[in-house]
Amino acid sequence: LAETIRVQSPEGTKRICSTKRESASSFVKKVAKEFGFSDNGFTLFKGRNKTDAVNHKSRLSLSAMDIKHGDMLYLIPNTVRSMSPPDNMDTSSPSLSRPTSTSVLGSSSVLQSSQQPAMGEDEIDVCLAKQDGKIDRIRDAQLCRHGPMGRCVHCVPLEPFDEDYLNHLDPPVKHMSFHAYIRKLTGGADKGKFVALENISCKIKAGCEGHPLWPEGICTKCQPSAITLNRQKYRHVDNVMFENYTIADRFLNSWRRTGGQRLGYLYGRYAEHKDISLGIRAEIAAIYEPPQVITRLFFHAVSAIGHFMNYLQIGSVSIDFFFFHINKLMGSYRNQHKLSKAHLIHINNHKLAIALKTATRVRKNAIACSVLGC
């Protein structure tokens, strides 16, 4: 007789059709196929608290193992996710397959060894970490009542995160630099002893036995803590600079010729920004424009070439031009020339949206900035 066995996993509950005489090994294969696991990528338990495991290679029938119609089994993955495609599945495509050999750098072995540079802190981070970053002030002749070698509250060096000083700069600095923010957290009398810099986890806590697994059930013990979003007070990159104007000009030429928007990846280096204490400047040396269609991108080859030239992939750039209706810009000119539905692109106000990537540095999240009038 046919029977239905329920199997509960961290991803949900599914019903598996079986029979009383079906062996445990055959039933496990059905479960693996249903959940997309390999046969040895998980373990089935009869108890919620991981007790009474089901032998995957057993030839005993389900009835002999006291598994009846409507029973609930609990699937626990052995790893985070051990999915494996079928043996007969061809994951390659003739039109999208990568070439078996490369001539970019002369040999494929050199290319593969240079694709993934060693992860670690950038040189600019190491250099800025050794600096105190304090902002020197000159002696005020009216307020300072001490000699040239003395210091008072009116001329003592300021901390790099002093918000009042940053707001009075011309132009004002809205966000302090990343290293200045770190100094603010780790400064003071406690030296950052009570500052938590660990990664925030929003995952459901496992092991709660008072209710079904998520999403069928949840309680205050296993649900993640509430998160309050605050405005970011710092920025990872304080300035963006192109080595020469032709880099951005060549990138814009494609739009001038075709009118289509473009996307590119920035390659360059990080340097110290002298205008802001402990600031970082991104110096862009090249823009790589991948094929602007759905295709495989040759990031590894381009990144390998950049690695040999001491360039990193520091971000991406895209064209986002402003379109203005002819009525607002040309006024009476429209009436004279009968341009009823024309549109004008204001070239002087075009915008390059630049997103700087900081994956290889201490700064792990991305920062986006806009460069107007490039």
Automatic annotation (TrEMBL):
SUPFAM superfamilies assigned to the protein according to its UniProt record, in alphabetical order: Ubiquitin-like (SSF54236)
Q: Which Pfam families match?
A: NPL4, UN_NPL4, zf-NPL4
Domain annotation NPL4 zinc-binding putative: ranges: 121-259
What GO biological process terms are annotated to this protein in UniProt? ubiquitin-dependent protein catabolic process
Query: Its domain of life?
Result: Eukaryota
Chain ranges of the Nuclear pore localisation protein Npl4 ubiquitin-like domain: 5-76
Q: Where is this region: Disordered?
A: 83-118
Q: Low complexity: which segments have biased composition? A: 91-115
Which cellular components does GO assign to this protein? Answer: nucleus
User: Where does the record place the Nuclear pore localisation protein NPL4 C-terminal domain?
Assistant: 262-293
Q: Name one GO molecular function term.
A: ubiquitin binding
**Name of the protein described by the UniProt record:** NPL4 homolog, ubiquitin recognition factor
